[in-house]
Amino acid sequence: xxxxxxxxxxxxxxxxxxxxxxxxxxxxxxxxxxxxxxxxxxxxxxxxxxxxxxxxxxxxxxxxxxxxxxxxxxxxxxxxxxxxxxxxxxxxxxxxxxxxxxxxxxxxxxxxxxxxxxxxxxxxxxxxxxxxxxxxxxxxxxxxxxxxxxxxxxxxxxxxxxxxxxxxxxxxxxxxxxxxxxxxxxxxxxxxxxxxxxxxxxxxxxxxxxxxxxxxxxxxxxxxxxxxxxxxxxxxxxxxxxxxxxxxxxxxxxxxxxxxxxxxxxxxxxxxxxxxxxxxxxxxxxxxxxxxxxxxxxxxxxxxxxxxxxxxxxxxxxxxxxxxxxxxxxxxxxxxxxxxxxxxxxxxxxxxxxxxxxxxxxxxxxxxxxxxxxxxxxxxxxxxxxxxxxxxxxxxxxxxxxxxxxxxxxxxxxxxxxxx
Length: 420
Known about the structure:
It comes from Roseibium polysiphoniae. This is HEXXH motif-containing protein. By secondary structure, this protein is an alpha+beta fold. It has a domain at 312-420. Helix content is 45%, strand content 11%. It contains 12 helices and 13 strands. The strands form 4 sheets. Strands 7-8-11-13-12 form a 5-stranded mixed sheet. It is globular and about 70 Å long.
């Protein structure tokens, strides 16, 4: 990370996507530092078979490939699956499958030869599915019970995918494992829209809680259909590019993928993110304005996590008291409210810009959220135990909030908040 960059540089999008890119890459290096000891342990274990050599080779490389993977949601999800298993001294079939997943993610069918021979087998995910970690194309074997595919077949699939139009598919028959390759659709040429990989089909438990909201043992095939209406998912980004181009660019630099999800009538939200899949946001269809609000909200969660991975913002010791906030039905801990003030700052600014563009009257909602945000900021000032970086972060949030919502600041969008 550039030593001149500090947390305040990431409170609001300002066309400096290079800084966001550096933030994301710095966070990836921190993630790699956590993973390296695990790979060293696997590399020393003869009972891990060929995966011991895979781990050793990964560590002996220059680290570029591993650092790239640490920026990607499916790889981070793999690491969280590994980290949830406390004892890696006893290797069983489940752990060997996880090591096979690592080998599959590490393999780069588009890159230079990495020692994989054409007939070396690469593990497929559940449902005979394969996607490179960047998710920009995918392959599914016709035989859905197939467990592996030759590396040469995937290199062939990558070449075919590169020639396809976004969203188009082609049948592969000459690889020894017949199947279909499809090129993913991108927003802004950078952010992938896909739910193809099984690790992206997250099963919600219904608790809506940070530590128990996902059922990690299940793949939710029902709520993540492979086909969706792409114009619906593109619409909020078209709006965002019109009303807040700096934030549009920052969305594309912060997020790797948007994961389409079927709308759940019983859900309290049409979108969510989870730290295990950092860089992805999960979104159900809705009207463009509502989806605009949700992509602002969810991207902010992802951005704030990257900032926390580089600079701790809250001290470990906090009050155990939970506090009522307007945006949740249940009392929230300090950690959740602290994250919420950054998230809702982005939504308030987005709604003010939306109102100013004359698309729809959202002034009442913008003012309501601004009042909620003001109260939450005051609560955090009083109750939170902040690190020096956290105090800087909160200070910049207050400055931006006051500039956007106060009369006489010169901010062109402050008029939205002139009435109480």
